[in-house]
Design a protein that fits this description.
two-stranded parallel sheet, about 10% strand
C-alpha cells in the first residue's frame, strides 16, 4: 500500500454499486477514479440474503426506475463475488489506487 501524502487531502472515489454487478464495469470505475487522481475507491460488499428479507418490497422510486420485484432481488443483481473483489483489488494496485 502506498503512503499517503500528509500535505494534501485524501481523495476517495465512491463506486458503491454503480458497477451494476458487472466486473468489467467495476474495473472501469477504478480506471476512471485513478485518472481523476483518487487515492482510494470505495465499493460496497454485501450479500442480498443477509441484508434484505425476501418479502421486503422496493421503494416506490426503485420500482419506477427498475420495475417490479423485491428489494432482495434488486440487491442480488448488484452483488459481486469474492473473486470479483480480489480482481478489483489487484486492478486498484496496478492502477495505483
Amino acid at each position: 500500500m502506498r503512503r499517503l501524502d500528509q500535505t494534501r487531502a485524501t481523495l476517495i472515489a465512491e463506486a458503491g454499486v454503480n458497477h451494476d454487478g458487472d466486473l468489467p464495469k467495476a474495473l472501469k470505475l477504478v480506471d476512471v477514479a485513478a485518472e481523476a487522481g483518487a487515492d482510494f475507491v470505495k465499493f460496497q460488499m454485501f450479500r442480498a440474503d443477509a441484508i434484505a428479507a425476501k418479502s421486503a418490497p422496493k421503494a416506490e422510486y426503485q420500482s419506477r426506475a427498475i420495475g417490479d420485484g423485491g428489494q432482495q432481488e434488486m440487491l442480488r443483481a448488484l452483488e459481486l463475488s469474492p473473486d470479483a473483489f480480489a480482481a478489483i483489488i489487484a486492478h486498484c494496485e496496478a492502477a495505483g489506487v
